[in-house]
Known about the structure:
By secondary structure, chain A is an alpha+beta fold. Helices cover 36% and strands 28% of the residues of chain A. Helices cover 36% and strands 28% of the residues of chain B.
Amino acid sequence: MTALERKFTLHVPSSTENLAMIREFVSNIGTQAGLDARDVGKLELAVDEACANVIEHAYGNDTSKDVVIRATFDADELHIDVEDTGRGFDPTAVKSEELDKLVAARKSGGLGMRLIKTLMDEVRYEIEPGRKNELHMMKRIRKA
Amino acid sequence: MPNPFALTKSMEGDVAVISLDGYLDAHTAPQFEAAIQDEMDGGHTRIVVDCAPLTYISSAGLGVFMSFVEELREQDGDIKICALQPKVQSTFEVLGFAEIFDICDTRQEAVARFDEPHAATVGEG
């Protein structure tokens, strides 16, 4: 990150109803950062998945809690941090089972994290028990 | 902030067609899940999901397909998917859904696929 970086933050109540607002927020930032339409779509989906995990798993659909999305970008990279104060659920630790095994078991779990890891260039998770949990995601900005 | 999603149901012969319109995410996926469950409760095991007006899908929506397909196939039915827009199709492809599900270009093709005598169920065998 350089001195020319720009920062944006969105705080929203923890409800799936707000996923549309979150997607709108990150799409606008992705476009402003210079991502092409295809990468904006990937960013939008990855952040949707990260926030849905927080809303449903970390907060257990408790709408009194907040999800915080922080975005920072410069000419080369766009960083998104999704922050919560809920249960220390580490989505990166979810085992990626084969799709046909999930289907056979009638399970749909783990798809969101699989998508995030595929769509973003870097993904890592930090837990500070009782304080906050952060999922860090980075997308490189490809030069036209 | 609107989260537009609409779902319409119809029958073509003995095939139940569910058409999805708008954004299918963790907020709207329960509506889709309920619609498939309704069809199954009504004895319909041949289901086509027409995605022509669907502009967005997240894993919550994809998970609905996954959670029903095995049970439908065990009852000699299936979920066939048709008319994916490029953005939605790329999400299906990222997760390898094309190898598990029968995905057709048009609704007519998807409905007709049920009557093919040796219709291969993608992902089996």
